[in-house]
Amino acid sequence: MPGLEYRVSDSPYVEGVYRVGPSGVRGGFAPERMVSVVNSNWELLVWASNGVTTVSVRGPETRPTVVPLGGGLDSTFGVIFRHGAFLRNLPVGGLVDGSVSSPHTTPRSFVLQGDEWEIPTYENAETFVERLVGAGLLVRDPLVTDVVAGERPLLVTPRSVQRRVAAATGLTQGTIRQIERVRQAAMLLRQGVAATEVVHLVGYHDQPHLARSLTRFVGRTATQLRTPTTDEMMSLLYKTEVEVRP
């Protein structure tokens, strides 16, 4: 993605941090539209468009969407949260395929759950997250983090695990695995890996199975992913620690 800068985080609450646009290391961009593919993580999103700054909490996405940009996007910054981390008074389940924007935002501050916060930056995102934790707004269920990564708890019933995963992520374990698998497939296809090899690497039954998954979750075919158009950008694809299996 032109102008993209992304880094993984060592915070137990944060999966990664990214920025796109003039603040990125490779300069600005002016796409006409963005293809927002499915995503099983929620994130804090800050973007500037035509001089207006917006801050929102965006939930997991279970279907692809196309967002018209018209070349008017100035910059975007996002903090992607790990599975198991969630805002105490803003259940992730209510954010699936949706978002909540700050009721009051300036270029430097925004309101979150009634309090004013300084907008974080690419460099100090973890410090901002630590403040949320210290204020009791951001909490974490480590069992969910471990379960989604493939570990099997011994002292918790499967039904309790299902409830806790749904409460912390807004999704079922099966949906998370489906989403992460198709995202990994999309990454490989964009890197030029042949569809037949992707089927084997990611664990699809066959190419038709891969094609159906791409249509449902990404909204693009394998050919379109290998040869993207210059006027279109795709939402960030990144590898997580989620267990991906057939």
What can you tell me about this protein's structure?
This protein is α+β, with helices and mostly antiparallel strands and about 250 residues long. It is built from seven helices and 13 strands. It has helices at about 125-135, 140-150, 160-170, 175-190, 195-200, 205-215, 220-225, and strands at about 5-10, 15-20, 35, 45-50, 50-60, 65-70, 75-80, 85, 100, 110, 115-120, 140, 230-235. The strands form four sheets. The chain has a six-stranded antiparallel β-sheet with strand order 1-2-7-4-5-9, covered by helices on one side. Strands 6-3-13 form a three-stranded mixed β-sheet, with no helix packed on it. Strands 8-12 form a two-stranded antiparallel sheet. The radius of gyration is 18 Å and the shape is globular.
Give the structure's gist in a few sentences.
The two termini are 29 Å apart. The protein has 246 residues and is of the alpha+beta class. The chain is built from seven helices and 13 strands.
